[in-house]
Write a structure and sequence with these properties.
The protein is α+β, with helices and mostly antiparallel strands. The protein folds into two domains: about 20-165, Creatinase/prolidase N-terminal domain (Creatine Amidinohydrolase, Chain A, domain 1, 3-Layer(aba) Sandwich), CATH 3.40.350.10; about 170-410, Alpha-Beta Complex (Creatine Amidinohydrolase). Helix content is about 35%, strand content about 20%. The protein contains ten helices and 18 strands. The chain has helices at about 20-35, 45-55, 85-95, 110-125, 140-150, 160-170, 175-195, 205-215, 285-300, 310-320; strands spanning about 40-45, 70-75, 80-85, 100-105, 135, 155-160, 230, 250-255, 260, 265, 270-275, 335, 345-350, 365-370, 370-375, 380-385, 385-390, 395-400. Strands 4-3-2-1-5-6 form a six-stranded mixed beta sheet, sandwiched between helices. A hairpin with a 6-residue loop joins strand 12 and strand 13 (about 345-350). Helix 4 (about 110-125) packs across helix 5. It is elongated, with a radius of gyration of 23 Å.
Amino acid sequence: MQGYARGGFNVSYEKRVNPQDLRRDRVKRAQDQLKKAGLDAILVWKDENQRYLTDLRPQIIHGKSTALNGALLIDGKDPILFCSGGERDRIENTMPWIKEVHTIPIIEEKSLVHGLVKNILGPVLEKYGLTKCKLGLDEANVIFYQALVQHFPNISIEDGDTPMQQARMIKLPGEIELLEEATAIADAVCATAIETVKEGVRECDVAANAMHTLYKLGGEYSHVTTPFVASGEHMSPPNRICSDKIIRDGDLVFIDIGAAWNGYFGDMARTVYCGSSNSKPSDEQKKIYTAVYEGLQAGVAEMKPGKTNIDAAKALIKASDKYGLGGRFLSLFIAHGVGIGANEPPYIGETLPGAPEYEFKPGMVFAVEPLIWVEGVRGGGGVRLEEMVQITENGPHIMSRTPFDKKLLSK
């Protein structure tokens, strides 16, 4: 039954994801990792972690991530939600699975943060015998951390983010179904963007039309807060925004917008050529595109149980290097995990210190996104292609389906 997006509605004629079952299974995963880490509880503030535990779809305020909503996970207990006052009434009216909820301020003003720790979080910790415990914390600002240490000096604050990452790394079957649906929406968003690309259209026009499709299909938001549409010379080096630049004949146009649906992200992208019937991409543009395309295919082919992220990165770079471009990749990882987090471990092609080796396991899902750019190419010499890839027992399953631009492939 896996392998495609069935539809987003809750229907009676076909078995689809049961959100109650999925929520229960996610919480169990997190509690298993809590115990494995030797923790008594985990307090989370990161958007993806609180959603994983509670299913709260919050209002997102720019620059306030980890400062609005959180959740406390205790072994054997339902998650306890700490929410912005703007969410409280809706939670009580529409989320009956939340058994305990507390209203909190935005976590940034010192006096309010101390009030939160002492008078809101404190009684909860006392109620559950957690005033002397090992408490995992995923992410918090310094004011909150200092307040927690000051008011509860007998609490040992531990790493709570790694257990949550471990819980989320191997996707549950229901999560795979939601990722398939999110990817279907992302494909539709990308298709709209590609249809919009023509001479005289601005990058922001492409993003606007694509975002209309995203919301029309029930998407929550784009994969990246700043939709990425870059044309021509804006891809060498990449400008990771969309602007008022006018798209011209001969431009390569990169589109990376994606979609979130039901809390899960579809992250795929394409580069296309803008030109009339009398216009053709240059040989250099075709070489760059082909190097990225063949590298992507070679890397994905290695993404199966028994292989590692290093195997995939080596295969991808080697295939691209046939065109003398193996050293022209963007200074970023080549692939990242994706799920309820838009960008999460594990990574492929990370070259910074400390990058670990991972063996591919069934249930891992990646966005594989090699990008090569070359300066000085008329119409732009930057190409990225991105696929959503699920690791299965039988090898890689590619969730994304948007076609590649054949005009850009070298014969």
